[in-house]
Each structure stands twice: as structure tokens, then as C-alpha cells.
Amino acid sequence: MQALADRLPRLRHRSDWQSLLYLAALPALAAWQWIHGFHLLLYAPMLFLTLGIGVIHHNHTHLRMWRGRRANRVTDLWITLLQGHPSFVFWPAHVANHHRHRHGPEDMARTYRFCGDTNHLLGYLLHPLQAAWVLYPLFLRWLAKLHRHQPGAFRYCMAQYAVWLGSWALLLALDWRKALLFVILPQLHGLHWLLATNYLQHAHADGSAGGRQPAGQLNYARNFEGWLNPLLFNIGLHTAHHEHPHAHWSALRGLHHGQYRARVHPALNEGGLVPYMLRVFVLGSLLPRYRSRSLMPPATPN
Predict the structure, then answer these.
(1) How many helices, marked H, and strands, marked E, lie in the chain?
(2) Which residues contact 30 (CB under 8 A, 6 or more apart)?
(3) Which of these, 32, 51, 57, lies nearest to 42 by C-alpha position?
(4) Is 12:65 a contact under the CB 8 Å cutoff?
(5) Residue 252 burial (C-beta neighbours within 10 Å; 0-12, 13-18, 19+)
């Protein structure tokens, strides 16, 4: 029995049972509605779970969920199926680009690259499309490099594409209406939010120095401290994550309050995500006093 137990996959952190619950709940809700029909009380939490899957994707890239390689590879492919896009893309776009340059002038998807230094509803809605436009060539260059120097890794990335596109082809062949409603549209919703999160966390923050700011200031990211954090794996505590990218998500609350909150400009420490979006994106579109103010130096080029 002990030998069998030793061969079973083991989580690095007990709190990742929450991640496993999300990874199981999303396809279960989709499958139930595929069989029994659309139900708003199931579809709405399914859309929320697509946000959680994006955060799990992010977290699993920074710190692998399992202690064994095989379990991590299976999780990569499962996330690819649920996310509707290969999971490898977080390496070139997020780790090697965003975390390296911290919203600075060399960050390819920096928010102030597109249409100036903005923070409004249209910018939030468009940012995923703008970011995808500049990031996909990065993915292709990454794949070309892997093909030349690491053919095994290249084949693994291609397997993720095969799993994703093959799943879409199969489901569309079974019933294209159900595939669109219960699988593809929720996936696109999650992918949009995943890319738009960059706008929420960095628009109007100071990206001029790429996180290397004087006097110990850390004003390149916005933090959200509201009640959604435990449900979305503390993704709102973004400064602590940038400063400790390999820290488990369950440790970010302590790091944020213990080390980084006081070093961030007060305007970048927000309460809840939803009140922030309502204030800045909805009320701010009508009344200037509700809009955020940029912390970027005026002379910084776009």
C-alpha cells in the first residue's frame, strides 16, 4: 500500500484542492447543460469558473501544482482543454516578457503602448485584442526557437495545439450550437478576462521604469484587496506576486500586507474589483471625478 501511495501524484500545497475543484467543476457544469439544456443558474457560475481557470493557468506556470512531472503534464493538457488555448503561451508572454519588464517600456503588452496612457471602459474591452495582436508573433518566434534548439519541447507545444483544436473540431461536429454556447463562448470569455486583467492591474500605474523605481517605491501595479481574492487565488495582490513570482498564491496575502502595501502609492491599493470597475469604467465615463489619475511621468513616451 505504501508503494502505491508513493506513486500517486502529490500536490505541492494542500490549498490547491481549490484549483482541482475548479478544474473539475467547469467541465461538469458544461456537460450537464449539454445534456439537459441551458440553465442560467449553472451558466453564470460556469462563466465565473472560466476566470478561475485562467488564474490556475497562471499559477501553474509560475509554480507547478504537482511534485511529479507526469501529473504536471496532464494538468497542462487539461488546462489547455478548458482554457481553449495552449497553456505554453504563458512562458513567452508572461514570464519572459511581463515579469521580466514589469509593465516597463520593453513590455510588449504594456497598457500605454496602445492608444496612449488610458484607463477607461473602451481601453479595458480592447486591450485583449491589442495584446493578442502583438503577442502572437512572439509565440511564433518562441516556437521557431524551440523547433531549432529543443525539438522535444516544440513537439509538446504542438501536442497542446492538437488537443485544443481537436477538441473544438470534435465538439463542433457533435453539435455546433451546443459547442459554441457551452464550450467556445465561455472559453473566449475567460481568455478575454485573462488578457484584460493586465489592464486592470496596470493601467495608469507607473510603468516608466519597469518596476525599478527610486526610494523603494513599487508603483507599477494595482492591487485589489476585496472579497473576490480568495475565490480567484489572490490574483488581486499583484505587487507581491511580481516581487515573489514563485511564491504560492496562498502566501500572497501575508506578503502584501506585511511587506508591500505600504510601498505602493495609495491610489494603487484598491478595495474590491467590482466597485473599482463600476467607479472607473462606468461612473468615470460620465463624471471626471470618478476617473483614475495616471502615475506615469508626463514625458514618458508611449
Answers:
(1) 14, 2
(2) 46, 182, 183, 186
(3) 32
(4) yes
(5) buried
Q: Using CA atoms, how far apart are residues 103 and 223, in angstroms rounded to an integer? A: 14
Left, alpha or beta for 297 (phi > 0: left; psi -120 to 50: alpha)? beta
Q: Count CB atoms within 10 A of the CB of residue 302.
A: 11
**Per-10-residue mean pLDDT for the chain, 302 residues long?**
60 95 98 97 97 96 94 96 94 91 91 93 96 94 95 96 97 98 98 96 88 73 94 96 95 95 94 96 95 83 45
Strand partners, 66: 11
DSSP string over 194-240: HHHHHHHHHTTS--TTTT--GGG---SS-EE-STHHHHTTTTT-HHH
**CA distance readout (Å), 94 to 87, 234, 242, 255:** 11, 17, 11, 21
pLDDT of residue 210: 67
Four-residue CA torsion sign, 228, 267, 205, 100: negative
Closest CA to 250 of 259, 260, 240: 240
Which pLDDT value is given to residue 208? 83
Angle (CA) 116 118 120, round 5°: 145
- Determine the Cα–Cα distance for residues 140 and 149; give it in Å rounded to an integer: 14
